[in-house]
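Q: What does the assembly look like in three dimensions?
Context provided by user:
Components: two
Sequences:
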Amino acid sequence: MDFFSEFFQAITNMSATSLAQHVVNGVSLGSLYALIAIGYTMVYGILLMINFAHGDIVMMACYFAFFGITVFHIPWYFTFIGVIIATALLGAVIERTAYRPLRDAPKNSVLISAIGASFLLENLANYLFSGRPLRFPDIPLLSSNIEVGDVQIQAICIVIPIMTFLSLWLLLHIVNHTKIGMAMRAVSKDYEIARVMGINIDRVISITFIIGSALAAIGAFMWGVRYPGITPMLGVMPGLKCFIAAVIGGIGNIKGAVIGGFILGLGEVFIVAFFPQLSGYRDAFAFIVLIIILFYKPTGLLGEKTTEKV
Amino acid sequence: MDKKRNMLLTAVCVVVLFGAACFAQFELDSYIRRIINLCLIYAIIGLSMNLTNGFAGQFSLGQAGFMAVGAYVVGIFTVPVELRENVFYAVPMNPLIADIEMPLWLALLVGGLLSALIAFLIGTPVLRLRGDYLAIATLGFSEIIRIIITNAQSFTNGALGIKDIPALNDVRYIYIATAVTFLFITALINSSYGRAFKAIREDEIAAEAMGINLFRHKCLAFMLSAFFAGIGGGLYGALLGTVDPKNFLFTLTYNFLLIIVLGGMGSITGSMLGAVIVTAGLEFLRIFDEPMALFGMDIPLFRPGFRMVIFSILLMVCVLFWRKGIMGTSEFTWDKFITFCKNPVKYCLGKGAK
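A: Here is the predicted structure of the complete assembly.
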């Protein structure tokens, strides 16, 4: 009873201002999740594997940004571009070394290799940059507060959704209206047939990883501005949650990943807002949603139904 | 003739191992004893993980969570009642359990059973999933268990952890638990259940068509695996003398993943070997964490964290270039061992050619 009375108290105490604040927080968190989830969903759509290292690619991108701005004093807009390029390269290298040799191996080996790659990145970051949390460089233009009515909003909270939708628009354009996009769709539809029809599978997969990692880099940069502490384990939880977001939306479906990201982001923020005593469990929310979705709609919200052939 | 010889060899081997164990307990220093004990505990948990991942073919990554359950049951119930006030100084212990004290063996058993119960509750929805989804869901649950432990402060002392767990003086617990786990899993794998597990691993649809109840067998494997992981976790907690939610991060599961990958997914003796190699290797690699000077020059490479980098590279190399591990899916037999001893080079080459 205590639980519900606190819930109602939280609702009745909530003014329009704080509600708007929560919505803004939820939307910006959801947009970040969406950006990272796209990387998972694209790789899964083509290779049918979880790129466990994706979360750690996000973490590495944060460190790249830290080194660019704080250590080498490069202006943040150049660093931003540099981070995207470096991270995309990192993604391509990981695909090349950890996943390509196992293309015809059993699925479990690929999964173990992905876990190994993720673990290696974490340990490498821990070794190279030390486990102590570093502070993401302060970018006054993005981290300053602006007032809209009574609501105090960090500028980055407005930039995040805009950047997300710009990237999404660009991505959908690439996937739907270019030749390489067509090849990607063909590979994700039927890997073998695409190969037989003369599509260079390795190139398509490399480009998929490059695009996914570049989006992760954009997400990581904004993540760093919004949540400035960077540690080697930074990418783990967002990584798991974003994979879940991709599953919720229907794995392999780009728009689904975005919807899933928003569901998780808003859900998490509102759980903490409405049930303050549950705030310790906010990380568990995503996993509970995952179980519910897999129980009732295993293909996700926008996923296509598939049947397994004997 | 051969059968007799093999039994004799096994008996000799058991006696030698027993002698070695006694020798280790009385003669060797505490550091080496500790490594041996850790090897055996890791072997228990490696075996339990191999049961689901190697034999039943269900890729589960929840071992750290089940270990945490076992370790916390031991931590909560074996601390003497009069000491608890000191341990639970931030939030007093929940009166429901504040006066219950158990001997270690009972706490281990309760921990194992509780793990199995949790595995049953988790398994009912999760075991419908396959491959990657199952891996993510079990990983998620192991994190949820950890989050619950961190937040349920009146039961588990939250992030502070439980200290003052009575030291595990009697190592017979570890030896007996390892032997029982080994014998039980060997017997299970050679029974009809074991064959059903392997059938599910090879082809679920075909296994179902042969009349194997998929869900029942998967759930059984998952629960047994959780039971042994709980016992292993309990021993781990007792050996460390303290439990803390941070000990049971999901990265702990990767240790056991390396053990079963190195030893061979689906080989009991492989897991035992893997456990010894990985545990001893991790201890040996500690020298890489310390600054090292060669010919009077400091090598900047050696500093804390290098050990884990090597460890993760080993995991990658193992899965990229040596997918079958040491044993593959076969077991250690005396016949093979003797052939190997007669001509190791030919044996390895012959195996490679196949």
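Follow-up: The mean pLDDT of chain B is 85.
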